[in-house]
Amino acid sequence: MKEIKKNIVLFAGTTEGRLLAEYLQELNQPFVICVATRYARDLLEDICRPDQAGCMEIRQGRLDVTEMEQMFDELRPGLVIDATHPYAVEVTRNIRIACSGRKGLRLIRCLREPGIGDSRPGAGVVHMPGAGVVHMPDVETAVTWLSSVTGNILVTTGSKELSSYTRIRDYEQRIYARVLPSEEAVARCRSLGFEGRHIIAMQGPFSEEMNLAQLREYGCAYLVTKDGGAAGGFSEKIKAARRAGAAAVVIDRPGSGEGISLDEIKGQLKEWMDHEKKGSIYG
C-alpha cells in the first residue's frame, strides 16, 4: 500500500507564511514556497533543507497569472495557500485567478487579524500632531494630506510605494524611511533621493520603545503605517506615536478578498491531509 501525497504551494513572505511553512514541515507534508524577494527567501532558507522532508523548494520572483498557471501545471498541487501580506492586493488577485477553474485545486487565504485599539476606519482627519489617528484609504491620499501639513515624517510602509512620498515638498529632509535591510530596498531609497539618516534599514516588527526612540530621535510629528495587525507590530506603532505626541497616519486595508485565521488554516490543513490520505491509497 503506497500513500501518494499531493503537493501544496505556499505563497509566503509574511510571519504567517513562515509559521505555516514550519507547520507543514512538522507534518512532513510536501510543499513549495513562493516568495517575491531574495530577502524573503533568505529568511526561509533554514526551513528548506535537503536533510528534511516537507519543503521541496523555495521559488523567488514576482509572478503574473500566466506564470502562476504554468507553475501549477508543473507542480499539480492539490492545495494553494495565500499567506501574502494583507495589502498585497495584486498578488492575491493573481493567485485567485490562476486557481479558478482548476478542478480539484483548493485555495485558502490566510487573513491576518486587524489591529486592536486606537485604529478604527472613519475616525476622521486630524490636523494637529498628537491628536490621534488619521485614517487614509490609500497611500496617494495620505501623501496629499501630508503635503498640507508641516513636520518630519517616519514612513514605515516599506520601499515599494516610497516613490509616492517624493511628491511632498522637501521630502529629502522631512521623511525618514524605514525599510527592510535588503540591498534592493536600500538601493530603491537612494534612487529616490533618500540618503544617510533618512534611510532606516531594519527588520521588524518593532517594540513600542523602539518606535518611540525613532520618533523622538528624528523629531517626527507623523508616523505612517499600514494595519499590519499583531504580527506587524501595529499596536506598538500606535502606542509609540501617542507617547511621542505624533499623529499616526494609517493606510486602511483594502476591502477585498476573504480569508481565515492562521489557527483555522492549521485545522483545515489537517482535515485536507486526512481527506487526501484516505483517497490516495493504492494497492
From TrEMBL:
One of its GO terms (molecular function) is precorrin-6A reductase activity. It comes from the Bacteria. This is Precorrin-6A reductase. Keywords: Cobalamin biosynthesis, Oxidoreductase. It is an enzyme of class 1 (oxidoreductase). NCBIfam families: precor6x_red. Its EC number is 1.3.1.54.
